[in-house]
User: Fold GntR family transcriptional regulator from Uruburuella suis.
Amino acid sequence: MENTSTVESAKQKLNDWLDKGIIVSGNKLPSERELEELLGVKRMTLRQALLHLEGESKIFRKDRRGWFVALPRFNYNPSSATSFKQAAIEQGRLPSWGYLSKERVHAAAPNILALLGVKEGDALYKICGWGALDNHKVFYHETFINAQVAPDFIEQLGEGSFAEAWETIYSKKTHTKHLEFKPTRFSGSACKGIGGTPGTPSIRVKKYRADEADKIVQIDIEYWRFESVEFFIDL
Amino acid sequence: MENTSTVESAKQKLNDWLDKGIIVSGNKLPSERELEELLGVKRMTLRQALLHLEGESKIFRKDRRGWFVALPRFNYNPSSATSFKQAAIEQGRLPSWGYLSKERVHAAAPNILALLGVKEGDALYKICGWGALDNHKVFYHETFINAQVAPDFIEQLGEGSFAEAWETIYSKKTHTKHLEFKPTRFSGSACKGIGGTPGTPSIRVKKYRADEADKIVQIDIEYWRFESVEFFIDL
DNA sequence: GAGTGGTCTAGACCACTTT
DNA sequence: AAGTGGTCTAGACCACTCG
Assistant:
């Protein structure tokens, strides 16, 4: 009669409730203590079920804030000229973003300096920020820019997007030259910046952007929430 | 004196032992029961530590077989003409692969048929297999091929690689036309094919390969072990 | 301040792998 | 047959969030 009270059965019930839209009022799931009662499993077991559903992109976590019904995946073409903002709108999503820090620095990882063609000790810009869809943060980024190529970039950027700044202020059309995808887990600044749970899988996307002369002018390192995105590239 | 006996401390100790190469004889870690004693933590706690280290690519699991010291990440360019075999050798790794099934089928997902230009009810080939580095399986794949474009592909393939078959037998040079990266978790056939633990994060790579006339002749769906790979693309 | 998520303990049983 | 990994129970404490 009663089911086997295992992770699998808990998952199925939760899945049902999610599909049917019941129980899950608004967007937040009931607390774990309520759920363990509703599902007839213990806390650690429930946790497994929730973690599995997280992996299947049905739900997601905000650190210390609980579990939420997942939003659709974002279809992202990192090589496209289309900005995050525009792509989001095209997919019927509400984009937003913020900057956590904008610094003029004189040091960075050696390979960053080399790629940007910045001499040891010379200035470059480091900008950290996040991007969100429907008010849910989906990526954190660190961006490096050659200060010689784009003087006063920080001031010019304001609250606008990178693409806008490049085109409007420096009249440069940039294109993606190189891409890297590395499966990792959230930790450190990416974790804080996005409000992610440490240890949760994530994808690090590294992007070199170049100008018309094929000179690398910007390096982006983005950390995406594992379940919130899907990448595609046309060649 | 004794540390706080938390996940973090267990991780640090394990990390130490891994770095120094002690405790870890051969390639397999001691059993979980031994480790809980050595580290002074309980099983579920140890498990958290191990899972974290798995996420950081220091160790990996074989289903029901235990924990192993991780191998280096494979640097994989999915758009390159270079075959898996060749790329592996260039990175000083020992590649191997196997086929789990080779079928002539008359049905597949509608979008697969459409992309390959196979009419409803017509034949296509479905080939499932795996790839390994240093005798550790790192990906599982399902490949679909238009039977009209490459008659008798299954027979011609033998135990060789796809690239070899296309070039030698059909004298076609193929190139990657489209790529998709989707973070998922292991389940179903991919899980079995690779000996992965269900629920473990993985990356699904979808690849359309086309001939000189830009006609799609092959669709690859690969499921990669999360921690064993890093992708890059030059544009 | 109550409630909640994150973490941890100290056991247990089963299915599978290995010896 | 013994050992091991996978799973589950029934508690507990702490740090943080939220009302």
